[in-house]
Amino acid sequence: MKKVFILTFLGVTFLSCKKENDLVEVKIPDPEVPVTQTAFGNPADVKVNEGGIFKMKGLKYAYDALAPFIDGKTMEIHYSKHHLGYANKLNKAIAGTDLETKPIEEILSKLDLKNSELRNNAGGYYNHNLFFESLNPKAGGTPSGELEQAIDLEFGSFDEFQKKITEVATNQFGSGWAWLVITNEGKLALTSTSNQDNPLMPNAEIKGTPILAIDVWEHAYYLNYQNKRADYLTAIFNIIDWNVVNAKYELAISKL
Ligand code: MN
Three-state SS for 15? Predict the structure, then answer.
């Protein structure tokens, strides 16, 4: 009896909805606007504390858009918790000092390494901006333009380059980053750094302008890959935006 009632009720509702829908205009979303609101939340809602100089730059994709290579939950925690934490702590560390007016690159290159609060958080802020910016769900493949030629010249081929940067990232013991940089002599080089250090800092083994940053902290991959860093490193090559990396290459070369 109850079942019959529900079915009848749904039937009536369905019919009346159908009738109303004939009159409702359906707005078709503009495909040029990225859909960033998902079950995981919207990156655009993540803001630094009031008065903070360095802002959250947002993401050009939804948290879950990089799946299956990086899952939505990892991206949400990484951006809205870890990255936000670095940004807020950086802003706190520079508040009221003359660093408030300096670009992040200058803060990093003139860093007092003993100032660990600034070192960790200015590094974390810069490194993550570069990392998130270099990813794109509609990416992967191989570089083109001047970067393609430079990679062939330095590493022999793209495959060799991928093998070498994967080695560098795999061999970074503990938390840190793998980098593709342009040295001050205009050559491509690979290096890794610990924690949130980077190749702009005074202590960098290989100094240069970073054009690609690969995060090898466990927080970047643990939910999906657990201890299998190598699998994460293979996967990430499907979502590296080589147009972004190439643009950074050409800009850095033009400034030498
Ligand atoms: Mn990270």
Answer: helix
Question: What distance in Å separates the CA atoms of residue 86 and residue 118, rounded to the nearest whole number?
Answer: 10
**Is there a contact between 199 and 181 (Cβ–Cβ < 8 Å)?**
yes
64, 102 in Cβ contact below 8 A? no
Architecture of domain 43-133: Orthogonal Bundle (1.10)
For position 183, what pLDDT does the model report?
Answer: 97
Contact status, residue 233 vs residue 170, Cβ threshold 8 Å = yes
d(CA 178, ligand 1 centre) in Å = 12
Which secondary-structure segment (H or E) carries 142? none
Around ion ligand 1, residues with a beta carbon closer than 5 Å are: 215, 217, 220
Contact (CB, 8 A) for 236 and 214: yes
- Per-chain mean pLDDT for the chain: 90
Query: What are the extents of the domains in the chain?
Result: 1-27, 43-133, 145-254
Give the Å distance between the CA of 233 and the centre of ligand 1: 14
pTM, to two decimals: 0.85
For 238, counting Cβ atoms within 10 Å of its Cβ (0-12 exposed, 13-18 middle, 19+ buried), the class is middle
List strands edge to edge, sheet with 209-215: 188-194, 176-182, 209-215
Using DSSP's 3-state secondary structure scheme, residue 234 falls into helix
Q: Regarding the domain delimited by 145-254, which CATH topology (the fold level of the hierarchy) does it fall under? A: minor pseudopilin epsh fold (3.55.40)
Q: What is the rounded distance in angstroms from the CA atom of residue 135 to the CA atom of residue 244? A: 9
Q: Give 192-218 pLDDT, tens digit per residue.
A: 999 999 999 999 999 999 999 999 999
Q: How far apart are CA 245 and CA 248, in angstroms?
A: 5
Distance from chain centroid for Cα 246: 16
CA of 3 to the centre of ligand 1 (A): 52
- CA–CA gap between residue 193 and residue 212 (Å, rounded): 13
